[in-house]
Amino acid sequence: MIKLENTLLLGHRGARSEALENTLFGFEHAYKLQAQGLSGVEFDVQLTADGHLVIFHDETLQRLCGLQSRVDQLSLIEIQRQLQLGHKIITLDMLAQSMTYSPTIFSQSQVPKDLVTRVTETTKVAKTQNHKISLPALTQFTHIELEIKTHNRTNYSKLIQALIRYLVGTPLASLPIVLTTFDVQLLAQLQCNKLLANIPRGLLVRTPQSIVSAPNTALQLGCTQLGIHYPLITKSIIQNAHRYGLPVSAWTVNDIEIAKKLVEWQVDVIITDIPSQLL
User: What is the spatial distance between Cα 166 and Cα 152, in angstroms, rounded to a whole number?
Assistant: First the structure.
């Protein structure tokens, strides 16, 4: 447990080390930590072959579903035939529907034994029985980071249209969402789009080469925050970002002592796989 002071704590992909990542069950687990001080969650979306946004991190389904196919090669129907350790792969609109408090049912399924070892005992229990979850979760959070995954095959026009369909005039529009990405081309397109430009955006940074120019790049792209891989962060980097008026989000921090140091340096957000251990 650490004193967070003015730093917000977010669960990474829900709460990745405590419940299966990027699932409704994981978001429900994170919601239960809200009363202890969890401010929100971070999660990922990717575009399917037929233009849907699924909440999934990896480029392929290999790690979680045992299928080598890429997300962008498959239709939503093909993706949802797969289970990740017994859990459905969900879309952004399914997440929005869950905000209406309707129950989601996870049913028993057969999962490869070598995959089961990658999740906690809590998730194993949810996998092996009918488990009803009502999820007001995201409506209670104060900060949500939605990372948009892209690659060299990304169809930006289709991606922009999907973001409009999912985020404009839907229940998700009322949430405190920041759209984050490493992709400066995408950030430029978001900045120019009349329907999406008002949604806050964050530039993600993972290399020493890009850290120096990151504040200026972020401001040119109309971003409201920086998301920096935590080993790159120093007190002076945080102070410099703050001089530009840019909050700093540190990812992915799973060491308590490092988290304490970042709080001391006045980092604005810490993203972690282990929120229960930091609260």
Answer: 23
Please tell me the distance from the alpha carbon of residue 198 to that of residue 219, in angstroms, as a whole number. 14
Closest CA to 223 of 243, 240, 204: 204
Q: What is the share, in percent, of the chain residues with pLDDT greater than 90?
A: 77
Lowest mean pLDDT, pick from 42-46, 72-76, 103-107, 256-260: 103-107
H helical segments located in the chain:
24-32, 62-65, 76-80, 92-98, 113-116, 121-127, 156-167, 184-192, 208-211, 214-220, 235-243, 256-264, 275-278
- Specify the DSSP class assigned to residue 61: S
The alpha carbon of residue 224 and the mean position of all alpha carbons in its chain are separated, in whole angstroms, by: 17
Tally of CB atoms within 10 A around 136: 12
Q: Which of 73-77, 84-88, 104-108 has the highest mean pLDDT?
A: 73-77
Number of helices and strands in the chain (H, E) = 13, 13
Q: What is the dihedral of CA 121, 125, 126, 132, to 10 degrees?
A: -130
The Cβ-side half-sphere exposure at 85, using a 13 Å CA radius, reads 25
Strand pairing category for 104-106 and 131-133:
antiparallel
Shortest CA distance to 270 belongs to which of 10, 4, 57? 10
Provide long-range contacts, Cβ within 8 A and 24+ apart, for 76-81: 76/48, 76/50, 76/52, 79/48, 79/54
